[in-house]
Design brief:
Helix content is 37%, strand content 10%. It is α+β, with helices and mostly antiparallel strands and 398 residues long. Strands 1-2-3 form a three-stranded antiparallel sheet, covered by helices on one side.
Length: 398
Amino acid sequence: MGQKLKSQKGEISITDFQGRIRLRWRVNGQRYSLNLPFPYAPENLHHASVKVAEIKLDILKGSFDTTLEKYKPKIEAPVPAVKSKIPADTKEVYLGDLVNKFNEWTAQIKNINIDHSIDYFGVRRVIERYGRISVAAVAGKIAAEKWAVTTYNKRLHILSSFFTWLVDNEVVSSNPLVHVNKKRDKTKKKNERRKPLTEKEIHSFLEAIRQDRFCHPSAPFKHSYYYPFLKFIFLTGVRNAEAIGLRVKRVDFNQGQIEISETLARTNKGTCNAARISKGTKTGNTRYIPLNEELSNLLLPLVTGKDDDSFVFISPRGFAIDDRMLKRRIIKPVMVALEIGDRDLYAARHSFGTRAVQQGMPVTDVAYLMGHATVETTIRNYVGVGKRSIALPSMAGC
């Protein structure tokens, strides 16, 4: 048994227990410990660090699993062989024959409105496009697609689940995707349009918007109209749809906080007011953003005199903001004119995550503020490394 060092209050200790990694901590006066199936060695301590961050984030969000089942490493069982339920002489099934079955499965089994889900709508389009491709050949066809990593993984998961349902209902004899690798190589080229902006670039952009520096004199609406909306996203790092769907009742000046619990999400029908639907956040969580003085001064004029269910940010014509058209007509032209480059509004979110970590904010706090399910998402997608290190960590006593 390794050395036992008393950890600080609220911290999670990483110790050596019979040659294996063990975590120990307290929550609400209750002691917990979790043994990990990894030898206690330097090359394995990153597993412990990731698990510690996950537990801390759940404690911060108030969703800590006292049974610890959520935190136990998952060991995947071998996939059993699928027994054929259809005689070998059954006629070959083509993807085009399964479109109606996919609609039925999506609506009745998954309880999803396909017209409001970009992911499932996209898979149906794939099935329609593969019309004369046989079920047996679908694995090779998908492998040849040049989809982005996230798109590939989502579509493969949906299709595999769909084929499993078809097997259970004896529509097809076997799932052609059951043994296909579910994780395509994560190495991918970063989206340059979402590259984080420096603080100087953010200031230049927002000032150009506020002063209508690049607004055409005959434009029906000034760029400065959107200044509060754009500054809000840069200050908070919320997702576009979360800012667009923010209602007056979610802004609590007395408690000093903003509740982020819903979005006004785009659908496959578009990004305009009529095409959007109200739904929960991407991860289904509710989080609270501190309402500091700068945000209070920004939001107070926008909520005064409005009903509780009204949106805080609206277009000049009184509708929900169309972020796609905002990017095309204002954001891109201004950023190009400032020689920042062609950037999406989502770059504001990446800028927030990078800026927060570089200024010393704990990654768990950043993950909470940004509404991530795990800190891995924060580290992998939103934490940039553009700031040069100016020192090495010290080592006392040497």
